[in-house]
Every structure is written in C-alpha cells, then in structure tokens.
Amino acid sequence: MTAPVVVILAAGQGTRMRSATPKLLHPLCGRPLLAWTVDAARGAGAAKVVVVGGPDRALAPGLPEDVVLAVQQEARGTADAVLAAAGQIDRDAPVIVLNGDVPLMTGESLHQFAAAHAANGAAATMLTMVLPDPSGYGRVVRAADGAVERVVETKKPGDATPAELEIKEVNSGVYAFAGGDLLDALGEVGSDNAQGELYLPDVLPILRAKGRSVRAHLVDDAGLTLGVNDRGDLAKVHAEAQRRIQARHMAAGVTIVDPGSTVIDVGVEIGPDTVIAPFCSLHGSTRIGSGSTIGPQTTLIDATLGDGVAVPHSYLTSCTLEDGASVGPFAYLRPGAVLREGAKVGTFVEVKNSDIGAGTKVPHLSYIGDADIGEGSNIGAATITANYDGRRKHRTTIGARVKSGVDVSFVAPVSVGDDAWTAAGSVITEDVPEGALGVARARQRNIEGYSERKKENEDQWPPQQ
Fold first, then answer.
1. Which of 169, 275, 326, 348 could form a disulfide with 140 if both were Cys (CB 3.0 to 4.6 A apart)?
2. In percent, how much of the chain has pLDDT > 90?
C-alpha cells in the first residue's frame, strides 16, 4: 500500500468556542486538539501531513517541523480548503482528508481506512458510521452492489425522503481519494448553493458521473469522529479521551481507584502495580514507576517518580523523586527539587531547586530552597534556608548525617559539614565544621517574680513605664 498524503482541514474560525485562542489550539488532555489529529496521521504512516489553515497563520507556531502548512486565503468551503493543499498532493498517491477537530481519530483506524481504500480500488472511499440517532448527519445511500450512490443531507425539512431519514449509516466527514481523481474533480466543484461555497462531498457525484467507484468503509466506533465545535463538545471529547487513556493504563496493570475523579494527560507514563487514588491530576510529561501510590488529592506536573514512591495530598511540578521517596501530605515540590532514594519530605514542607540526599528527612513545616543536603540527614521542624538577600539567590550546603534542631534558619551562602549538629532556634550565618554543634541564639536569662510584678503594674493607673 502506498503511503497516503493526509490533509487536515483546520482553517475554520471556531467562533462557537467564544475564545481568543484558535479552536484547534485548545488543550485536550495535555495536547492541543490539532496535535491529536496530526499524531493520528503520523500513526497511519502518512508520507506527508498537510494542515490547511487560515491566512493569519495562527496555527503555524504549534506545528511540528515536518508538517506542511497550506493557507486557505478565504473561507470558501471544504473543497476550496483542499484546493489550497493541491500543491502538496501527489497524483499517484492516495489522499486522506479529515477535519482537525476530530481528536479521537487514531492512527490505527486511519491506517485500516487507507488499507480498505487501497483494497477496493475506488476513486473515493468514505468513512461511515451507524448512529442510533443520526439527526443532522448526511445519510449514506448505497447501491445494490454496496457502493455509495449518494449522500443525502438532512439540514432542512424536505432534504430527504422519509425512507432516507430511516437510514442510520451517516457520513463522518473523513475521505480517502485517489490523488489524481481528487485533483481533477476539485476543478469541477461548483458553488451553486445558499452559502456560495465549494463543498468536498460534491466531489463524490462528479466521480460517479465519470464512472468511477465511490465506496464506504464502516467503522463501529462512533467516537472516532466525535467533533469539537464548542465548549460543550470539548467536555464530551475530554470525557471520552479520559476513558480511553485510563483504560490503556488499567490494561497495563495500573490501579485507578476512581476513574471519574481522576485526570491523566495523554503523555503520562505509569508503571504496573502503581495505585492512583481518587482526585489526582497527572499532567504533561509526568513519569511514574511501578509499585507507587499517588494521592488521594495529588497533582503531578512534568514530574519524574521512581518505583515505590508515595505522594498523598501534595502538589509536585518539574521535580524528580527516586525509588522509595515519599512526599506529603500537604507538601509542595517546585521545579528543580530532587529527592534521592528513600528521602522523605513531610507535612507542610516546600522544596525548590534543591537536592535532598538518600534517606534524608525533612519531616514538617520547613522551606528548603536552593540547597544541597547530603544523605542520612534529619532536618528539624520549621527549618528555613534563607536563600535570598534581596538581590540574588544563594545556596545552602548541608552535609551527610547532619542533625538540625527545630526552628533553625540557615542564612545562605552557608555550609554545614558532615555529622554536624545545629541547636534549636539558631540562626546559622557562618559555616559549621564537620562534627561540630552550631549554636547561634541569645543566651537565656530568667527574670524572677516577673508575673507578680506585671500584675501589680497593671493594677496601677496609669501603668508605670
């Protein structure tokens, strides 16, 4: 089978989205709508992918380098859009044409469609589907030999006969053509309609009039061609995309406790025996190893997690957790945070641009920013690395097996050696040598009888200064 040229129609204004963002650039599970269709074309083994956009070239920044952008100068219908891509169509190769707003189309389905077109030797093949309620769709009328005789539109009363309205097989708007036949027929498409536009389905009767065969390829998954015209459609497509994404992960050995409360982007990778608890959102290029437990109520964005990691009730973005690390509950890991094997970041801890050594614990109520901490250290509650002097950020270096007391501030740049200690309540502004105890706080003194003297003073008016 000759690899097809895939033409994706994407020049529509998408006004029903009511958005400053072009419709096909709206995100769906971590990718723009158009990227889903482009991926399907690639998955079908396309020799070339051509996207037909508008004269504003708004889609250009989001297109991969190997995708060709053809510009439709005026919105004059779908046949005119294909004409805009005519220079990219090979007369001797098959052409698949589909809309850019059908993101659930898969590469496998397009490949099967192209194979069916090649096998039947037709000039054109339509992708069709059977719908329980085909209202609003063009009905496919077949000849006795199974070929497509015509497509009957049903937009207005009287467009179709009662018998034709009983037909459940409908046109999906996805076509395969022989390249030369398509190019020849496009030149004959007229604009004798209420809108004065050139419509791609009008190519089919032109081909039949020339004695060329038009066939149909019926698919049993109507969701493949579920389109997006407005925000409601986007929500429906999102729900179906989530169902498919999560079904793929569960088939690969991932437990998703409550799929209805879980959101997983299409690019997320999850290892077997990992459990995704309810109310989790996994986004971007997130990677999770095997045997991990995520959530409940955890958000991961572009995060990399190893095997056996636990992250309940936390928010992680652009960070790395090695095998056996644990985070949370109620922790926040910001970009550049690295937790080495078996490290722990506990409750109400924030970590930014820091490397936390293997087995090190930052149990609770701390901020670790721009720091490097060695293995086996224990960072006491309410520890702060004061990394900003008002102009620049500075790093804190804490060695291995360090024991930091509670309520300690490390004023960067400062270093603490291996096996050192810091006393509770200290403000460490100078380096602490290896094995030393750093104490940096005012000496305590007790004022005897203070409570009684305070009460006597309050009983006088005005109080004595």
1. 169
2. 79
Question: Which range, 1-5, 140-144, 424-428, is most confident?
Answer: 424-428
Contact 300, 285 (CB under 8 A): no
Is 31 annotated as contributing to ligand binding? no
Contacting residues for 406 by C-beta, under 8 A, at least 6 apart:
380, 381, 382, 383, 424, 425
Last residue of a domain, one of 209, 225, 241: 225
Helices (H), 22-153: 33-43, 78-84, 107-120
CATH of the domain at 264: 2.160.10.10
Judged against a pLDDT cut of 70, whether residue 463 lies above it is answered with no
Nearest CA-CA partner of 378 in 397, 393, 398: 398
Active site residues: 364
Is 445 among the domain residues? Answer: no
Are residues 110 and 169 located together in one domain of the fold? yes
Query: Both tokens of residue 364?
Result: 């609770």
Of the pLDDT bands very low, low, confident and very high (cuts 50, 70, 90), residue 222 is confident
Is 139 annotated for ligand binding?
A: no
- At 21-31, the pLDDT tens digits run 999 999 999 99
Task: Tell whether 115 is in a known binding site.
Answer: no
| Tens of pLDDT, residues 167-216 | 999 989 899 999 999 999 999 998 877 678 888 988 999 999 999 999 99
453 is a domain residue: no
User: In this structure, what token pair is assigned to residue 65?
Assistant: 């380098």
Q: Is the pLDDT of residue 278 over 90?
A: yes
Q: Is the dihedral of CA 244, 249, 253, 254 positive or negative?
A: negative
Return all residues near 31 (Cβ < 8 A) that are at least 6 apart. 39, 265, 266, 267
Residue that is written with structure tokens 């910001």 in the block = 334
249 located within any domain: no
Q: Are residues 34 and 123 in the same domain?
A: yes
One domain, residues 206 and 321: no
**Domain limits for position 185:** 5-225
Residues 280 and 212 in one domain: no
* pLDDT > 70 fraction of the chain, expressed in percent and rounded: 99
Domain count along the chain: 2
Same domain assignment for residues 320 and 392: yes
Q: Does 11 appear as a known binding residue?
A: yes
The verdict on whether residue 120 carries a ligand-binding annotation is no
| CATH code: domain of residue 43 | 3.90.550.10
| 184/43 same-domain check | yes
352 is in an annotated binding site: yes
Asked whether residue 235 is domain-assigned, the answer is: no
User: What is the tens place of the pLDDT at every residue in 52-94?
Assistant: 999 999 999 889 999 999 999 998 899 999 999 999 999 999 9
